[in-house]
Task: structure prediction
Amino acid sequence: MLALTRRRWLGFGSIMIAGTLLATACGGGDGGDATGSEDGAPEDVDSDVEVTTAEGEDVELEFWTFVDAHADFMLERANEFNEANDEYNIILEASSADFEEMHDRLLVALQTGTGAPDIVDIEIQRFATFLRGEVPLHPLTDLYDNHRDQLVEERTAPYTADGVEYGIDYHLGAWVMYYNNAVLEEAGVDVDSIVTWDDYIEAGKQVVENTDSWMASVETTDRFTVLGLMLQNGGGTYDENNELILDSPENAEALQLISDMVNVHEIATVAEGGLHHDESYYQSLNDGKYASLWMPLWYVTRFKDFMPDTEGNILIRPLPEFPNSEFISTMGGGTGTAITTQIDDDKLDAAKQFLEFAKLTYDSQVALYTDLGFDPFRNDVYEDPALQETDPWFGDEPVMTNVQAMFDRLAPEYTGPQYPEAILQLRDIVAFDVIEDGADPAQALRDAEEQIRALEDE
Amino acid sequence: MATLTKGRAERAKSDRTTRPRQPFFHRPTVVAMVFLLPFVVLFGVFRVYAVGYAFVLSFQDIEGVGVSEWAGFDNYQRLLRDETFFNALRNTALYTAGTLLILIPLPLVLAAMLRSKLVARQTMFRSAIFLPVLTSLVVVGVVFSLLLSTNGLLNSFLGLFGVPAQGWLDTPHLAIPALLIVATWRWTGINVIYFTTGLSNIPSDLYESASVDGAGAIRKFWHLSVPLSKPIILFVTVLTIFGGFQLFVEPLILWGTGGGPRQAGLSVVLHLYRTAFTSFDLGYASAIGVVLALIIISVSFVTLKLFGFFKRD
Result:
C-alpha cells in the first residue's frame, strides 16, 4: 500500500479542492433562472400518464414544451400510437420548462447546430422568429395534405412560410364573447338580441345604467382585446403576402370601436392589471363586475379554475358583427408543434407519423377538447358526442356550441417576418395610447408601423 | 558587472544543488497556478471570449438561424434611431437614480442601528433583512404581483391613510416606483451587510471620545460613521450603479418581456434580451450590450472621480 506522507496528502488535497472549485464555478449561476430545474434545463415531466410499450421498432423522441398539460397530452397520444401502430414504438422523452427559458434554449440549440429536441412546442408569438433565414424545422405539408379537407385551413397560417407548413396547433382558438347572464338579466338584456357591435353598445348602456357592473373589460398591456377585433374586421398585422398592414382602415376602425366603448359610451373599463390574466381580474370577473369579455375559446378553462361563482351564469356566443366585415371571428394565441432539423434521419418518418397521429387525426382532435378543454380545428369532430355534451357551468349548453357555424367566416392570422415586434408594439404602446389616453387610432397605428418598417429596412 | 552576474549564476547553481528538489505539486508557483486555473479558464471562456465575441457580433447582421453578414456600423447607427432603446435608457437611468437615493442611505442607517446598543437581537434582525436576497425569484414574482395589484395588500394598506387605490402595475408613471419597491425589498439586506462590515472597522475609541465630548447618536452617525465609511459607501455606490444599469429580473417578473404599461418599466437589458431572443437579432443586441457597457464604465468613472478616488492622499 502506498504510504501517503503529510505533504503528499496536502498536495492531493489541494488538487481535490481546485477540482471542486472548478466544478462549483461551472455549475454556479447568478440565480437568474426563474423556473425549471436547478440548473435551468428543461425538466423531465413528472407525468401521471403511464407509458405503455408495444411491438415495433423502438424510437426515442425528445419533446420539449412549456406547458405540462401538453406533455401529458402527447404522452397519452404516444401510448395510443404504440397500440395502433406495428411499425414503431414511440418512447417519448417529454420535458417541460419555463416559457422564455425553453424558447431561448431552443433558439440557441438550433443556431449552434446541436442540442435541440426532435419535437418541440413553439408559441405563436415566437414561431415567426424560427421562420426567418434558413428554417430549422421540417416541412409538415404532407401531414396536413392527408387531412386538409377536414381542417380549418386558416389555422395553419401562423405556422406557414412561403406556402410550407412547419407547425401544428393544439387548438383553433376562435374568439367568442363570454357573457355573464346573471348581470345581463339584472340589466334586462336578452343575450341573443345582441348581433352587431351597435347592439352590444346599446346593451352595454343598459347594463351600466341598471347594474353596478361594466359591460366589458379591455386590456392595455396584452394583445387580445385589440388584436381580436382588428382581425375580425379584416385587419391584423400582416396579410397573406407578408405585407405589413398595421396602418389599415380596418384596424383603425376596430380600435376606434374599443376606444369609444371606454371613452365615449363609458360602458367598458381597463381590466385589473391591464390584462385578462391577472389574479385581481379573475376576482372581479368572479364577482360580476363585468357583464362580458371577448377572448379566444381556450379562455373557457379559466372560469372553472379561477372563478367558482360564475358557475351556471356564463353563456358563450359569437362576437357581435362589424357592418362591413365578412368575418364573424378569428383565431387567437396558439402553439405550433414542430419537428426540428436536428432529428436523426432514421427517426424522421416515425416522428412525422406520430405527430400526424397525435395532432391531426379524428380521435386526437376529440382529445384536444376532452383532455385539454380546447376547441379542435377539425370540422368533423364537432358532431362527436363528446363535443355535443352540455355543461351546466355554461348555461347547460355545449361549450363548443356555435363554433362550427363560424368556420366559413374565420379571419386567418398571418405572421410575417416582424410579427413578434408588431405584437410588442400593439400590446405595449398602441393599446395603451388608444384606450387609456384616447389617442387617434390611425395615428397610433401609423407610428407603430413606422417603427416596424424601420426594423424591416435594416 | 560581468563578475556580479557570474556570482549570481553560481549562487543559484549552488542553491539548486544543495536544496532538496521539491515535488512538482509542492512548488509554490504550481500550487498557485492550480488554484487559480479554474477561475482563469472560466473567466477566459465565459467573460473574455464572450465579451470579445459579442463585440465582433455587434458589427454583424444576424437575423434568423444560420444567417449572418458583415454590417459595419449599421447596428450602431440603428441604435441612434431606436426610440425604444432611448426609452429603456431613460427608464434605467431613473431606476438607477432611485436605487442610489434609497439603497445607500437606508441600509447605512439600518446598519448603524443594528450596531447600536438600542437594538436587541441584532443577529435575528440582520438575518431577517438579508433573507430577501436568498428568496427564489419565482416566489418574489408571484408575491409582488399580488402585493402590487389593484386589489393588493399595498393598496389596502395605503387605503388606511385615505390614499386611493393605485394601479401600480398598469400605470406608466408608477412603473419605476413599483420597480423601486421590489428593489428596496430585495437589495437592502446585502447593502446592510456591506455597511455593517464597514462600520465594524471604525475604532470604537473614536465613538467613546465623541461620547465624552457630549455627541449624541445622530451626531456620531453623521460626523463619525458617515465620513469614516466613505470607502465602503463608494464601493456600494459603484455596485448599485452596476446593478441599476443591469436591471432585468425585476421588470421581467412583474410584466414579462412586455416592459410594463407603455413600456415604462422596460430596461436596457430587457430590451437587449428581447432583441436577442424574441427577435433573434443577435448583432443589434450585441451593439446594445457594447453601448451599455460603455455607459456603465463612464458613469462609474465619473462617480469615482466625484468621490476623489483618483486623488492622492
About this structure: The first helix of chain A runs from residue 6 to 27. The longest strand of chain A covers residues 57-65.
